[in-house]
Amino acid sequence: MFQACKQMQKTVSKIILQKIQEEYGQRASSSHMERVLYSRDLAPVPSLLVDPLFHTLPDLIVCPIDTEEVMTLVQLASTEGIPITPRAGATTVFFNSVPVKGGIVMDLNQLNGIVDLDGTDLTVTVKAATTWSELESYLNRKGFACKSMPSSAPAATVGGWFCMMGYGIGSLKYGDLLSQIRAIKVVLPDGSAVSVSSASDPPLKWFAASEGTLGIITEVKLEIRKLSGMKHFLLRVPNIRHAVLFINDIIIDEKSRPYNLHFSDQYYVKMVHDLGLSEMNLESGCLVAIDAEGSDKELAQAEETVGHMSKKHAAILLTEAQADAEWTERFKSIRLKRGGPSLLGGEVLLPVDSLMGYLEDIKKISDGYGVHLMSYGHVISPTQATVMTSFFTDERRTLQYMLSLALVKKIQDAGYRHGGCPYGVGLWNTPYIKRIYTSSDLKLLRKRKSKMDPKDIMNPGKLYRAPLILNPLFFHTGMEAFALLRRVFRNGR
């Protein structure tokens, strides 16, 4: 009886999917080739490790053009119990925007463009799939600028970054994206569209870092700033201890806090140089880049402060041209992939005071496993930084790749020992979910999901709990076994 009901449901779903395809014409596709393209994100995970475990091949891809079409699609999916996975830039590596239960992938990239600019109120309303680079370019032409943006701005979308944790370039001065957003328009799992603000029910904060599991955002109203001057500084610091002290001194004063501050260890800098992507090279220490924004007076003050701090911490202030070049390359951190064939790593949200201990641990892991680990990061608040630690592997060599996955866990373990947690959840970080959220927070999140999406159609299988195969006990035991084998068969890469 159960099997008969299940088969009937599949038949009904196929009929509904066919109906959608007929209605949307060329903006809907069941082509196998196209569906395969939507079954992955930037993560270089071999099919052998994915296909037996998850149904990542969507049954249908649909490209709505406005909120009304999104509503219609969600209403149909809700009625028939068809999973929906929202997708736009897909610039993460956690399968946040990859289906794990098939269904419909809703490609939102046509929800793009500026809706309204209010220069007096200093706000802009945009469609959710507008990329940050598109928004910044538009604002600059009008004499304004974004307060902050992700390091993947050329591809990352406004709605997508809000559904992540929303920290990046500019967060140090202006805060996370949640603090800058006034309101969003969102289609809820029942197909209704609502305007959400900090005072609404549900409130805005519910959707921040929700990773598309509570609804589909179609418009965003956010705060902007007047376009002002900038000055960039690049320093070579003798060691990570001096770098951490330097960073703390620079960010402690709210009035002179930089717009952006990022750092790269010697291994990252050397690899970028060896790949022919930069003239900069380091044999020891690290680079610290500081980007100041404001009036001429504020920029002059920033220059004086940086000069004083560089002397205090034995840092060498590099040329203006080198500093400007570093700023120009700010969206190209992933350029390391050219040294591949594959690049793996872990991004960790860390207390600033723990940077030294974390990077020392990373050096021990690098030495112990015979692998070149390279780290760079952004200071995103007076107390926190995000650090990406990466290494090369080869996804075409499945055994080597599987053993290399254990090093990603070692990177996350190093972060956890120093008070950190993964940045982003999606699917692949679900084994670490209790490191990211407290038990009470997690209970609240699950209750919220159950209330808003009782049929669990909105990006199911993400964020709230690990699937059986990624159960923390199984996962951690398996990764430790892989780590042991990786140490035994270390190959220098």
Overview of this structure, please?
The model is unreliable at 1-9 (pLDDT under 50). The radius of gyration is 23 Å and the shape is globular. It is of the alpha+beta class. The strands form three sheets. The protein has an eight-stranded antiparallel beta sheet, with helices on both faces. It has 16 helices and 18 strands. The protein folds into three domains: 2-107, Uridine Diphospho-n-acetylenolpyruvylglucosamine Reductase, domain 2, CATH 3.30.43.10; 114-226, Uridine Diphospho-n-acetylenolpyruvylglucosamine Reductase, domain 3; 229-422, Vanillyl-alcohol Oxidase, Chain A, domain 3 (3-Layer(aba) Sandwich), CATH 3.40.462. The chain is 37% helix and 21% strand.
Topology:
Blueprint: H1 2-24, E1 28-29, H2 32-37, H3 47-50, E2 60-62, H4 67-80, E3 84-87, E4 104-107, E5 114-118, E6 123-127, H5 132-141, E7 144-146, H6 158-163, H7 171-174, E8 181-187, E9 193-197, E10 216-226, E11 229-237, H8 240-251, E12 260-265, H9 266-274, E13 286-294, H10 296-312, E14 316-317, H11 320-328, E15 342-351, H12 355-369, E16 374-379, E17 384-393, H13 398-417, E18 421-422, H14 433-436, H15 439-452, H16 472-488
Helix pairs in contact: 12-13, 13-16
Tally of separate helices: 16
Number of strands: 18
Strand content: 15-25%
Overall number of domains: 3
C-alpha Rg, in Å? 23 Å
Say what the CATH topology of the largest domain is: Vanillyl-alcohol Oxidase, Chain A, domain 3
**Distance from first to last alpha carbon:** 54 Å
The CATH architecture of the largest domain is 3-Layer(aba) Sandwich
Q: Tell me, what is the CATH class of the largest domain?
A: Alpha Beta
